[in-house]
Amino acid sequence: MKILVCVKQVPDMESRFKVNDGGDWFSEADLAFRMNEYDEYAVEQAVQLREQLGEGNELTVLSIGPDRVQETIKKALAMGCDRGVHIKDADVHKKDPWQVASLIAGYAQGKSYDIIFTGMQSQDRGSAQVGVTVAENLSFSCATTLVDFKFADGAVTGKRELEGGLKAGVRIPLPALVTCQLGLNVPRYPTLPNIMKAKKKEIEALSAADVLKEQPLSTTNKFYPPVKRGGGVVLEGDVASQVERLIGILKDKTAVLR
Amino acid sequence: MKALLVGEYREGKLLENIYELVAFAGKLGADTAIALIGDAGSVPRYDGTVYLADVAKFGEYNPDQHKQLILAAIAKENPDYVIFPHSSFGWDLAPRVAANLKLSQVSEIIAIADDGFEVGCCNAKMRRTVKPGTAKAVLTLQAGAFSFVGEPQGTPTVVPLDVAGDGLVKFLGYEPAEAKDVDLGKAEVIVSAGRGIGKKDNVPVIAALAKAMGGELGASRPVVDSGWVEHSHQVGTTGQTVGPKLYVACGISGAIQHLAGMKKSDFIVAINKDKDAPIGEIADVLIVADVMQFVPALTAALQK
Question: Model pTM?
Fold first, then answer.
């Protein structure tokens, strides 16, 4: 079987975001980048499937972006993917979800993948469109937001996470694309020997311009911090005075402190 | 301008979020019609056309066929916008419809802006405005962003919707939420632990503050996913929705799914070392501090 897992590199979400010169995305200065959290679950599930299937099967990890995304590809290789694909694109943030999905589908087209894993969304853009759109473009069956995944008897069974703790069981035939929700599994930490082994694994490099034929369907006009609602009190300074001031406020404004 | 609103139907009922779509379309100034895979009893009070496909034939989750049904409704109605709730139903179905017609999709809209639609990004810490570039567009709306005021009225014209064929996805049934050993809905005070507490060993420190305040322990999703706290304590879209007199968020950044579960609390205190964390936007008091230094000090002061 051939398996593909798609990963995105995103900034650490604890970062302070500053607007770039174009005003349409964040400035990369001072940001640390890491694997999109949802994609860590996708990689883990793909690696578990690869281990279940054994030798003679292949798991490829794909990422789109500037040179720095090779670090994220290497992490996925160290977690257990067999080979990497880097679609080089310095301007990936300017591509809309349709173009990103078209890049992935364009790469996967004709390569006979049986299962494609993606995260259910990215932490930075969060459109939750790319995975499903790849499936539509490739005419794959598709189930989203999985918190449980099994492969047996040539089909995928899983549980979708709905609202309020409810789950929905689904079965889809191959070829299939699944989008992975947080909590699907426990993503492994790459071990040092596996990090060393990953250095020897192949990373195929392609240029986005060679794969993409599609124009964007939507544009981001502005990127900006939310307007502060105001009204909230911000307490800074030393802990002792913060505690004292908070207790004063709670006694004043709430009826819960006895 | 015309908008087709897609209803979400689950476990035999049309969900209330249809009225959030109606409210949004009202803000756009659009004429509307509704498309629904449901039954006659689920047709809402509404003044307009409802395209109704039979849920007994098509099922509650059958996205390939649902896509075909929505495409059939689009062909009849020719709307400028096709609008879904941004929910497990909407984010699954909307891109299938959009991709099929090669339409622009804007996801999880929170407001209408001068230059497009406002959406959140970077874990809700930042905002973008996104403008569709196609004549028709698919939109999904953040839960709770648009609220319907007043009492729904009217008797709709029901137009049956049907398509041939079959879907690839087989729905195997629902699995109910785990039984709750804690009913956070009744708690007057909830003190919740987030990823910012650092490790499982620190959970008792947060539980001790909950006890000192006479409240219950809550938790954010990452803390539950990591196995630090039981799922029955989870606050948010996929956990419990709460509205206590006092909510104390300890090391919780404030992902939209968490905020949706607790923003109706009477008074919100957030403790976070990140002054820009989105939880600060809805907190009545934001304490900028290391949660593991501040919480024990507060507990000790309350116990005096």
Answer: 0.92
Tell me phi and psi for residue B196, to 5 degrees: -65, -10
**Contact call for residues A49 and A27 (beta carbons, < 8 A):** no
Query: In three state form, how does the secondary structure of B156-173 look?
Result: CEEEECCCCCCCCCEEEE
* A205 interface with B at CB cutoff 8 Å: no
Query: What number of other Cβ atoms are within 10 A of residue B112's Cβ?
Result: 13
Q: Maximum Cα–Cα distance for chain B, whole Å?
A: 72
Cβ neighbours of residue A163 closer than 8 Å, sequence gap 6 or more: B87, B88, B237, B238
What whole-number distance in Å separates Cα of residue B193 and Cα of residue B229?
9
Distance between CA atoms of residues A165 and A147, nearest Å: 11
Ramachandran angles phi, psi of A19, nearest 5°: -75, 140
**Contacts B133 to A, Cβ<8 Å:** 216-219
Cβ-defined contact of A96 to B87 (cutoff 8 Å): no
Q: Which of B177, B184, B178 is nearest to B242 (CA)?
A: B184
ipTM of the complex as predicted: 0.94
Asked whether the beta carbons of B15 and B21 are under 8 A apart, the reply is: no
* Interface residue A156 vs chain B (CB under 8 A): no
Per-residue pLDDT of chain A (258 residues; tens, 9 = 90+): 999 999 999 999 989 999 999 999 999 999 999 999 999 999 999 999 999 999 999 999 999 999 999 999 999 999 999 999 999 999 999 999 999 999 999 999 999 999 999 999 999 999 999 999 999 999 999 999 999 999 999 999 999 999 988 999 999 999 999 999 999 999 999 999 999 999 999 999 999 999 998 999 999 999 999 887 666 899 999 999 999 999 999 999 888 875
Cβ neighbors of B273 (< 8 A, separation 6 or more) are B196, B288, B289, B290, B291
List b or e across A45-77, with b for residues whose CB sees 16 or more CB atoms inside 10 angstroms: bbbbbbeeeeeeeebbbbbbbbeebbebbbbbb
Q: What is the DSSP letter of A18?
A: -
Percent composition of chain A: helix, strand, coil (DSSP 3-state, to 5): 30, 30, 40
- Is the CB of residue B282 less than 8 Å away from at least one CB of chain A? yes
Q: Do B98 and A236 touch (CB under 8 A)?
A: no
How far A200 CA sits from the closest chain B CA (Å)? 32
Contacts of A205 by beta carbon, 8 Å cutoff, 6+ apart: A86, A88
Contact call for B269 and A246, based on CB within 8 A: yes
Token pair of B160 as six digits: 């049956």
Chain centroid offset of residue B227 CA: 23
Contacts of B61 in chain A (CB under 8 A): 160, 168, 170
Residue B248 near residue B295 (C-beta atoms within 8 A) = no
Find which of B190, B253, B285 to mutate to test the A interface (most A CBs within 10 Å of its CB).
Answer: B285
- The one-letter amino acid code at A173 reads P
B195 vs B258: CA distance, rounded Å:
12
